Amino acid sequence: MANLTQDNIEKILEGVTDIYTEQGIIADSIEINDDKVTISILLNYPAQSYHQELTDSITSALADANINNVSVNIDTKIAKYATQKGVDILSEVKNIIAVASGKGGVGKSTTAVNLALALQSEGAKVAILDADIYGPSQPRMLGVSKLKPETTGEGKLLPILGHGMQSMSIGYLVDEDNPMIWRGPMVTQALEQMLRDTLWRGVDYMIIDLPPGTGDTQLTLSQKIPVSGSVIVTTPQDIALLDAKKGLKMFEKVNIPILGIVENMSLHICSKCGHEEAIFGVGGGESMAKDADVNFLGALPLEMDIRTDVDEGTPTVAKDPEGRVSQIYKEIAKKVSAKLTLQEKALGAFPSITIE
C-alpha cells in the first residue's frame, strides 16, 4: 500500500482535531507492520470518557485514506505547568487550580467539589483544599465532617479521603459549630500551613475552593501559593456578574491564568411540568467570557438535586456519575485541564549551589 508510510499517517493525524485542545493530533509513536498500523497517543489531560470518541475520529480519518487495519492506544501523562515566578513549588502536587467567585451564594464550593470529582473520574489523581477559613463547607460536602486528620511523627497532617479524593480543611480541625474569630494574618497563615503541612501524595490537580471576594486569602494565594490557573464561578444575574468581573480582574493583575468561566444556576426546569425558566437571567456568563476573551466552560442548571447531593455528602458526580448534570461537570473538567495544557510547562527545579 503506497500511502502506508509514517509521514502520510502523521499528516492525516494532524487533520484530526482534539475537540478540547482544538489542536491536531500528534502521535507518541506509529508502528507499521505489513498492513497493520498501531498508533499510540499520549494525552496531557485526563479524558477517559473521550478516548473512544477520539479513537473513532482517528480510525475514520485513516479509513478515508484506505488505511483500515488500525489499532489506537490512548494513554495519559499529566505534566506540571508553570506558575507565578518566585513561589515555592509543592513536590507532590503538579498543578493547583483555584476556584473563585466575586460574591457568595453562586455555588462556588459545589462547583469546586464536583469539578474535582469529575477530574478524578476522568483518570487524574486529585486533591481539594478548602481555603474558606470562616465558612468551610468541603468536609460536609464530601461526607467526612466527623473525621479528624492524623498527624505523622514529623508533624505533618494526613489528608482526609472523601470519595477517594485527598482533602484538607480547617473544618476538620475545629468543631463545626465554632466560628473562626480570626484576623486576616491568622487566616492567611492557616491557609499556608494547611497547604504546606499536609502530606499530599502524587496529586495531578489540586482544586482550591476559595472564599468569595478579593481579600487577604486571594492575595496570599497569588503571592505564596504556586497556582497554575483559575476558574471563575458566577450566575447569570447582573449583580453576580459585576462581582465575578472583579475576581477575574484580580487574577489578571496577579498574573494567574484564567482557565474559564462557569455559569451556575443558568436555567430552572420544573420537576413537575418540565417548564424552563431563566430565573437569574440568560447568557450572562457566556457574555462575560466573550468580553474578557476567556473560555466559557459550561452552564449548570438550577436543580434541587445538585444542592441536596452535597448536603448529603455525596456530590452529584459521585452520586450519579452517568447522569446529565455529571456529564456537564465532566465536560467542564476536560475543558479546564485541556486549557491548562496550552500553557508553558514548568521548568525543572534548579540544583542547589554551594560556594565554599
UniProtKB/TrEMBL annotation:
Keywords: ATP-binding, Hydrolase, Iron, Iron-sulfur, Metal-binding, Nucleotide-binding. GO terms for cellular component: cytosol. Binds and transfers iron-sulfur (Fe-S) clusters to target apoproteins. Can hydrolyze ATP. The keyword Hydrolase applies. GO terms for biological process: iron-sulfur cluster assembly. Belongs to the Mrp/NBP35 ATP-binding proteins family. Homodimer. ATP binds at G102, K103, G104, G105, V106, G107, K108, S109. The gene is apbC. InterPro entries: FSCA_dom_sf (IPR034904), Mrp-like_CS (IPR000808), Mrp/NBP35_ATP-bd (IPR019591), NUBPL-like (IPR044304), P-loop_NTPase (IPR027417), YlxH/NBP35 (IPR033756). This is Iron-sulfur cluster carrier protein. It comes from the Bacteria. The keyword Transmembrane does not apply. One of its GO terms (molecular function) is metal ion binding.
